[in-house]
Structures are given as C-alpha cells and as structure tokens.
Amino acid sequence: MTYAMVHQPGSSNAQSPFRVIVQKTGRQVDWITRYLDQSCVRGLARHTLRSYALDLLHFVRWWADIHKTDAVTEEALTGSTLLDYVRFQAGQEPRPAADTINRRVWVVERALRNLFPDAAAQIAPGFQHFYWRRSALGYGRPRPALSRLRVKVPQRVVIPLSVDEVARFWSSFQTSRDLAIVGLMLLQGLRSCEVLSLNHDDLILAEAQIRVLGKGKKVRLLPLAPEAIELLDHYLRLERPVNCGSALFVSLKGRARGSRMTPEGLRSLFRHHRQTTGVNKANPHRFRHTFATDMIRAGISLPALMQLMGHAQIQTTLVYIRITPQDVYQQYARAVALIVRPVPPAKS
After folding, report:
1. For the residues of 114-168, what is the DSSP string, one character each?
2. Which residue in 1, 278, 283, 329 has its CB near the most CB atoms, within 10 A?
3. 19, 58, 273, 288: which one is catalytic?
4. Which of 285, 329, 332, 334 is catalytic?
5. Distance between alpha carbon 194 and the CA centroid of its chain, in Å?
6. CB–CB of 35/18 below 8 Å?
C-alpha cells in the first residue's frame, strides 16, 4: 500500500486540515487522524499540523513496509520499535539531518502515547527517566526534565548573508509587495509565518509601529524602520488590490488575486530569486539570522533583541547571534578605549 498526505481546506476548526490516507482507496489512517485532530483542538498552527502529518506519514510508510498494515496494535508495538525506526533513518541515503530524525521520533512517540496511554513504558523503555537540570544560562531553580531517545545533533553555525549577497538578492525583486516582504524579514526580523499572517489593521504607520502575531499566538508591538514604512506605503498605494479582505500580503495575479499569500507561494518566490541571483543561501530564516547579527553589531542589548524577535527565552536569542573574530576585536578595542587607568611609564 502507498500512503500520502492530503490537504482538506474545508475542515472545521475542530479538525486538522491535513490527513494521511491510503492512496488507492482514500481511507484515512485512523490513529493519525485522531492525533492530528487533537493537536488542532489544542490550537496548534497550520504549519505545525502539516509538519506533524508529514512526520507521521514517514513513520506509517516504514511501519506498513514491515508489518504490511498501517494499524498499530499494542501487541505489535515492542520496546525496540522507536530504536528500529531510528536505525532505519540512519541507514537511508542520503541520511536525514539529526534534527529531522529527532523531530520525527518525538512526534511519533507523542502520537503512540496518545494511542496507548497506559503503555508508556512499552513505547520507549529505558529511554524515559527524570533528571534535574538548570536553564542554559544557569539562572532559576532546577526543574525535572525527561530524557528521551534521540541522536546527537552536530553544532550548526548559520552564517548570515553578507552585504553584497543581500544587495544582489534584494535587487532582483520587481514588485513593491515582494520588496516589502523581504524588508520586514531583514529590517524587522519577522518569521515567514508572521509576515504571511499580517493583516492590514496590524500596520500603524502613523506611529511607525506594527502588531505581530508570533509563536504561541503571542502578540508583540514592534517599531518600524523608516525604510520598511516606505516599502509598505508603496505596496499599499500602488499594488494591493482594493476590497481584498483583511490580509496584508495577497496574490497579485491570476484566479487567486486578492487572496492571502500562501506559504507555498512564498517558498516559490524565494526559490525563483535564489536561482536568478545565485544567492543559494537566501531564505526567510537566513534573513532572520542576518537581522540578529546586524542588531548586535549596532550595539543593541540582548533583552531588547529578544523582545524584537519574539523569543520566550534569552538562550534562544543567543542561537541567532554570530560574532566573528573581527567583531570581537572591534568591540574589545572600543571597550579598551573607554577605560581610564593609570599606566606606569615604560622604563628606558
């Protein structure tokens, strides 16, 4: 049997718009449907539900290949199931990234625990035990943490775009809408999902502010850079169709004209301009890293940057900061120049 993920945009708010089905018959995989619907009721974002569906699709294809059925029973589930699943992924060519393997195992484990709430020890025996840990920066009281099956993740360093790469990529855009989208990512540090979820009412251009709905449905009010205000003003006056609803960024052509821009449309836009300019590393997340690095070099404090980026923990902000040896030297020289200390004269 072959399986696929399908999108059902007409689903209610109590049902996930994503389903994993058997392609030949269209039958839904019940235990996956149940987990996705429960996740939807919890209020998880659309892109999170899509990610869960894809991860569970990958698992059910592996499970069905071994057991010849997509039904997961308590009898068929053994203590080595998740470990065998990790071994399968580690042996694939090309091998998935460590983060991908860990995310898939985490989602599958959550779904299986939801399916068999009384069989937690059977799902991943030996991998679950509590221990006490402190926060990454050492503050606060220790809290219990749950150890789980995971593979080692190599340290990843995301290098921000250079000034030349940003200029080349940005100059390839022709419409005011696309320039405004990139501007909000580069000048305000917004995530791609935050840009797409913006409504026209979220702009307060008279006060140079923008209201952003971030992760966990947390709202933050951010200052707007003068360049971003100019780009947004051009888009609103010259290109945004009239009577197109509440969405700020909408499609400008074809049958979808006036409807909210989709994640697929944004990915296609960036893919096209990466090919056009040859800046292969240009993507929304890379722009976010570039924004954080630029802010730190300009002298912004970590707490302020944390608020701008919408992070709940300051250690998350630290991941986005890339300090080069030249940055260290410049900051050291600046600090030394401000220190006034008596220095004994050199002996001749």
Report:
1. HH-TT-HHHHSTTT-EEEEE--TTS-S--EEEEE---PPPPP---PPPPHHHHHH
2. 283
3. 288
4. 285
5. 10
6. no
Please tell me the distance from the alpha carbon of residue 206 to that of residue 151, in angstroms, as a whole number.
50
- Is 143 assigned a catalytic role? no
Residues 6 or more apart whose CB falls under 8 angstroms from that of 232 comprise: 180, 183, 203, 205, 224
Residue 312 has pLDDT above 70, yes or no: yes
Bridge partners (DSSP) of residue 219 are: 213
**Tens of pLDDT along 218-234?**
899 999 999 999 999 99
If you ran DSSP here, which 8-state letter would residue 200 be given?
G
Which domains does the chain carry?
Answer: 3-147 (no CATH), 163-331 (1.10.443.10)
Active-site residue identified among 3, 52, 85, 320: 320
> What pLDDT, in 10s, does the model give residues 162-183?
889 999 998 899 899 999 999 9
| Burial annotation 269-299 (CB, 10 A radius, 16+ → b, else e) | bbeebbeebebeebbbebbbbbbbbbbbbee
Instruction: Based on the residue annotation, tell me whether 320 is a catalytic residue of this protein.
Output: yes
- What does the block give as tokens for 95? 């091998």
What DSSP string describes 24-72?
Answer: TT--B-HHHHHHHHHHHHTT--HHHHHHHHHHHHHHHHHHHHHHSSS--
Residue type, 261: M
Q: Count how many Cα atoms sit within 13 Å of the Cα of residue 254 in the half-sphere of its side chain.
A: 7
Percentages helix, strand, coil for the chain (3-state, rounded to 5) are 50, 10, 40
- Residues 203, 188: contact at Cβ < 8 Å? no
From residue 9, alpha-carbon distances to 13, 21, 42, 124, 198 in Å are 10, 15, 18, 35, 20
Q: Which of 191, 273, 286, 289 is catalytic?
A: 191
The proportion of the chain whose per-residue pLDDT surpasses 70, expressed as a percent, equals 87
Instruction: Determine the residue type at 342.
Output: P
- Say whether 311 is catalytic: yes
Mark whether 148 is an active-site residue: no
